[in-house]
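Q: Convert this sequence to C-alpha cells.
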Amino acid sequence: MKNSKLVKFSLTLVCAAILSACGSSGGSDNSAAEAEAKAKAEQAQQAEAAKKAAEEAAKKAAEEAENKVKNSAVFGHKLVKKTDSNFILNIEGENRAAKSSESTGRSDTMDVKLHPSLDTVVVSIPLDENGNPVKGAPIGYVEDFDFRGNTNNTTGEFTLGHIYKTANGATTSGQVRGVETDTKTATAGTDTGSALVYQDGRTNYIPTDDAVKGSNSEVVARNDFRDRTDTVAEVYGHRTFVDGDSLTGTEAGETTLANAPFLAKDKNNAYAYKDGKLNHVQYGRVTSRLDDVELAQVKTGVNAGENGTKVVSYGEYNEKGTENSYFYRGTDERNGVVYNANLTSDLAKVYHGADKASGELNYQGHAVTYGFTHVAPNANKPDVSKVPNAIGANPEFDLPQLVSGTHVSAKIDLATKGVTGQLYDVWSVDNVKSNQQIANFTGTLVNNGSITGSSTRTLDNAAGTFNGNLFGKQAEELGGALASKATDSENSWGAVFGAKVQETPYQAPEQGKTSVWGVKTDGNN
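A:
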C-alpha cells in the first residue's frame, strides 16, 4: 500500500514536470501578461489598503472632533476694539508696550457657564510678555452690569448705578453695599454710567461713527443714529429690562417688555419688522478702562474661577485708554443640555414633523456694529442735485431714506448643518424699498450648538471670522459674532447679534371624527 502511494506521487511529479516542459517549449509566452496582471493586482490591493487607511483616519479624526465637541461647551463669544490703550490683545506683531486702537482680529470663546443674573462681564485676563495667561492670576470683570430697575423701554437709555468708572481705572475704594451675593462684593462703586438699550418705536440702531452715505453723501433717516458718546455700554436682549434692586441684587423678575428690535418680519410687508423679547441671548458692547492699570489698583472680586477675580473699572466709549468688548452670550442651552448627538434631526422633528429628518430654520434679529459703511442703493449714481432742469433752477429729488438697520437674517440647513446669513439695512429710494447687505457669513453647526465659519464685509470683500450659538430648549434663539481678520484701527470691523427663530413647532393636523352616515344604495333599501 505504501509503495503504491509512492508510485502515484512519483507519477504526479513526472506529469507536472512534463506539463511544465511542454508549457515552456511550445505555444505563446504569457510571463509578461502575468507580470502585468500581478502588478495591477498589487496596485489594486495597495489602493484598497490606502483607501481603507484614509477612511479609518477620517473616522478617527471625526470621532476625535466629535469627542472634543462633546466635552466642550460654548456660552458666547467676545471681540475687543481698543481706543489708545496698552491692553494686550495677543495678536501677531503686537507691540505690548505701546498704546494703540487695534482689535483682536477674532472672537474669543466664553466657555464658563454664566450666572443667571448676567450682572457681570469678564473683560480681561492677565498675560505675560509672550501672550500666555499668567499662572495663578485672576480674571478681571466689570461689576454691577445690572439692569434691575429698568422697567421702561421708551427712552432707549438706562443708568447703571453704583459702578466703578474712575479716571485711573482704580476700584479699591467704594461704599458699603450692605449685602454680599454670588456676583456682588461687599463694597460698591460710587459712580454711574449710561447704557444704551432697546427703544420702543426706534428703527435706526446704526451708530453715529459708522459711515452712512448716498450718491451725494446725504441721506435722511427715520430716527436719529445711535450716539455712543459718554456711554459705558450698549446692550440688548435677555436681562436688560428687569424689576428689582441692582445695589442689593434683590430679584423681582424680568419684565414682559420687548428688549430687542427686528425679531420677526411683518407678514403683510416684506420690509417691515416687529420687535420682541429674547429670553436667552444678550448681546452688545461694554467699555472698560485697563490702560496702564496695575493689579494692585483693583479690588478682589467674588470667589469664582480657579485663580480668583478682580473688579475692573468701566470706561466711556472711545475715550483714550479704554477697551470696547463686543459680545453675545446666552443662558439655558437647550434646557440645560449642551451636547446632543442628534441635535439637527431632533430639531427637524420639532419644527417639521416627527417623520422628518431635514428642513430649515430661519432667524431674524439685530446687530450691534462697528467699522462698517452703510451705503444707499443709489450710491453709484451721479449726484442729480447738481444737474439743473432749467436756467437758475435745480431739480427736486428725494434723498435716499434709511428705513431701518442693522438687521440680521440667518438660515440653518438641518440636513447639511450648513449656516448662511447676512447683515443688512432697509432703504427707500423714490419710494422703492430694498435690502442693502453690509456683510455675509457662513458656518457649520456642531452638536453642542456652536457654529464656526467665516464672514465678509460686502463693501470691500474684507475677510473675517464668524462664530455663533443656538440657545433655548428648541433652539429658539441664535447669538453670533463677526470679526475682521484685519486688526489695525483703520481696517478692523465687527458685529454681534441676537436673533429669533421664525418657524413655530410643528403640530400634526387633528384627526377627524369618523361619520356614522354613508351613501344610500339600492341594494340596502
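The two ends are 97 Å apart (CA to CA).
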